[in-house]
Amino acid sequence: MGLITRPDQSVQTGSKAVSFNPVAQEGWVTTRLDFLVNWGRANSLWPMPFGTACCAIEFMASAASHFDLARFGMERMSFSPRQADVLICAGRVPFKLAPVIRRIYQQMPQPKWVISMGACASTGGMFDSYAVVQGIDTIIPVDVYVPGCPPRPEGLIYGIMMLQRKIMDERMSNTAIRDEMTPDPTSQLYIPPSRIDELSEPFGNSVHQTRSAP
Amino acid sequence: MSSPVRKDPAAPAFAIVNAGQPGDRPATPKKVPHKGGAANPSVEALRAKFGSVIGRHEVMWGDTTVFVERTKVAEVCAWLQSDPTQSYEYLSDVTAVEYRDHVRPIEVVWHIRSIKFRRFLRIKCEIPKDGKTPLEVPSVWPVWKGADWLERECYDMFGIKFAGHPDLRRILLWEDFKEGFPLRKDFPMRGRFSRSEQLKNALAADPEARYSMEEISIADAYGDLPLDMRKRLAGGEKVGE
Amino acid sequence: MTATRTVEVAISHQGLEPEMAGENMLINIGPQHPATHGVLRLVLELDGETVVRCIPHVGYLHCGFEKIGEYRQYNQIIPWTDREDYLNSMGNNVAFVLGAERLFGIEITERCTVLRVIAMELSRIISHLVWMGTTCIDIGAFTPFLWSFQERENVYKLLEGWTGARLTTSGTRVGGMIADVPEGWVEGLRGFLDRFPKTLDECDRMLTRNAIWVGRTVGLGVMSPQEALNYGLSGPMLRASGVDYDVRKDFPYLDYETYDFEVPVGTNGDVYDRYLVRTEELRQSVRILEQALKRLPDGPVNVDDPRVILPPKHKATSEMESMIHHFKLVMEGPRPPIGEVYVPIESPKGEKGYYFVSDGTSKPVRWRIRPPSYVNLSAIPKMVEGHLLSDVIAINASIDIVMGEIDR
Q1: Does A155 or A179 have the greater pLDDT score?
Q2: Is A138 in CB contact (< 8 Å) with chain B?
Q3: Could you list the residue range(s) of the whole structural domain that residue C338 is in?
Q4: CA of C334 to nearest chain B CA: how many angstroms apart?
Q5: Is the ipTM of this complex over 0.90?
Q6: With an 8 Å Cβ cutoff, are A61 and C79 in contact?
Q7: Exposed e or buried b for every residue in C87-119, given b needs 16+ CB within 10 A?
Q8: Quick check: is C195 in a domain?
């Protein structure tokens, strides 16, 4: 296109490597175009509500008249992942659902974002059991985590505003942003298996727990 | 399918019955004793009808529990349901209990209810953990259709087989769940595998796979099935009528 | 059950073109679908647009509640009851402690009894309102969704003022409540009870005689009384079929027999009757709430039983005995006598019961949830058979499923 300047990422000045901020090298047209595109994207996010449990009820409350997600251009629920921008995972995700949410995420077109709503989606929450995924970030990449069990609609809206800020900061020149993250081909996980086990070690190592305590 | 269609939808569709007659209505149980109290009269009727099939009974916190021989449960239930003097037309629950005590037998529990006589009865049968007795009880599905999923869940969670159930397979967990039966006491709360192993197993599943014998018969999903199920099928296992 | 073809058919065809029986089509709804009210999956065999067979798949939200409960003390389980049927969390809290109190042999105070009735009926209202809103969306009416969720916000405000949480209340403790209602709360509830029937009337006007609503609900998913009983249906599903069974009347708890309310019973057992029954139950809940407010007595909320009730905070921080008592209750937990108990309640979905088995330790050997919507849903293959594909959505919505309770 010619509008986007692509400087070399670094030059040698003396002995020190200096990184360029690519944004600083962009022209007026590019930054304005970035702003326009991002503004459009951030304010008309089409959410794909992946509602499983309690958080889905609070998500519905956010969408209803009192909290009114339409103020953020999000009133158009996209129940088909093919037309969605942001996947809102509201609720706990058991292992049986893990391939489903992975499939839905993969079906969404770029650019796409993920909000993990609630403690269970973010970390497994209080369901530290044999059946629940301990955080959906082990299955799909997550942009915004909203804490709470369930989060109030205000909490979700704050998370959405954070996502909007994140979108506004995106630059077209940064192509890495749009790269599809590919999971590890052998384990199909985004996080190395050893890391997952390490993270769950203090609580999640099942070999130390053989019988229910009296 | 003939379905009754209401002629005038504006007409009131329901009759208010049960309109407050406090006299002939039961009252909230108060100061229920831990043990003892009047037993459910059905126990005596069962003894008279079935004799030694009926084991001991106990009244605890107001509810009567009666122990029935393991292989005869369906017979007893069928009689309780169809006999007009008993009329246990409602099955509340089918579940099982495994105690922390290693030697104490596993108990299968049926909660049944007579709406007509306002009675509640808990039927139990014991399966000793001696390694010889099969974890199997007769299904009450022919008596109450509501037992269908309750028994499947009991099988899923405890591994107890219900002989005569039309479609006994896992219901809450997936068909190739490899870790065992979660509500057994030797099953750790967080499962037998490490978290990464559990995730890998879960993600390897095909979300579109069909896991029902009936579905196989209507669409050739054989290739989608998990390996152990394919083996079982190849061995000639039949489920269905 | 019409499965006469056996598995051998499939085996013999492996590797070949699948031989589809006739021209029947297999269609898959869910597990992620806006009209399945959660993560239910229905596999439908269609002849044209008519459902020949329906095979539901559940378990996509199985979280192991019952297993977790075996590792928790009685009071610690209460947060899980919130998240199991999350539309009726306060009602579940009450149901749980009713069972636990029977197991401990505790008689609750007068004021607590009435407060719990208020809690249960409020949660029945919000649960039925979710049902109404989502079913309307499924069938094609959007406005009642907005109205019912607006009313839910009002109840949420009340619940939040009482327990500190909108949805996951954890509002009860064994032997009492988390707290007495705050000052001015009763007036707030009165105000809600004044306004709410008006909203209900508006929804009624909008739906009950609406030609589209009637056309899409009448005659669908019919269950005869005998079938409904045999399939173990409960709650509005059973009553719409004409069976007069309400746990509040037949096996009462919390002195429900002293309240003057009526149990609506349908005649046809179709989707429309279920709608009518639920709407009428909302009105009856308002009646119960009004009576409860009138009789709300003064007095303590928690029982005076040191086995289960924590000492007051100021004592726990100043007196040694109280501190030890507090510490032991929290760390070791109260121990019920050996025994088992099953206490059913009438949840908005039907007969909900918690079955406890105790071996005398502070954690139950078995904590079983009797899930009404699980059993209600198991009848869906029977209900949708012979109906059109689009009616499956209406029938499924009429069951009022909540997947958290079904899958646990």
Answers
A1: A155
A2: yes
A3: 77-370
A4: 17
A5: no
A6: no
A7: bbbbbbbbbbbbbbbbbbbbebbebbbbbbbbb
A8: yes
Does residue C43 form part of some domain?
no
**Partner-chain contact A139 B199, CB within 8 Å:** yes
- Three-state DSSP state, B223: helix
For B124, the token pair is 């139990």
pTM, two decimals, is: 0.84
Of B101, B187, B156, B33, the residue nearest C358 (C-alpha): B101
What are the chain C neighbours of B186 within 8 Å (beta carbons)? Answer: none
| Residue B68, CA atoms < 13 Å, CB-side half-sphere | 25
The CATH number for C272's domain is 1.10.645.10
CB C53 within 8 A of CB C381: yes
Q: A63 CA to chain C: closest CA distance, Å?
A: 9
* Total domains, chain C: 1
- What is the arithmetic mean of pLDDT over C132-159? 88
Q: Do C340 and B95 touch (CB under 8 A)?
A: no
Inter-chain contact B31–C107, Cβ cutoff 8 Å?
Answer: yes
Closest Cβ opposite residue B202 in set A98, A211, A214: A98
Q: Do C149 and A66 touch (CB under 8 A)?
A: yes
Q: Identify the structural domains of chain B with CATH numbers, from first to last.
A: 31-172 (3.30.460.80)
- A39-199: what fold? Rossmann fold (3.40.50)
Question: pLDDT tens-digit profile of B33-89?
Answer: 888 888 888 888 888 888 888 888 899 888 899 999 988 899 899 999 888 888 888
Domain boundaries, chain A: 39-199
Chain A residues with CB under 8 Å of B174 CB are 95-96
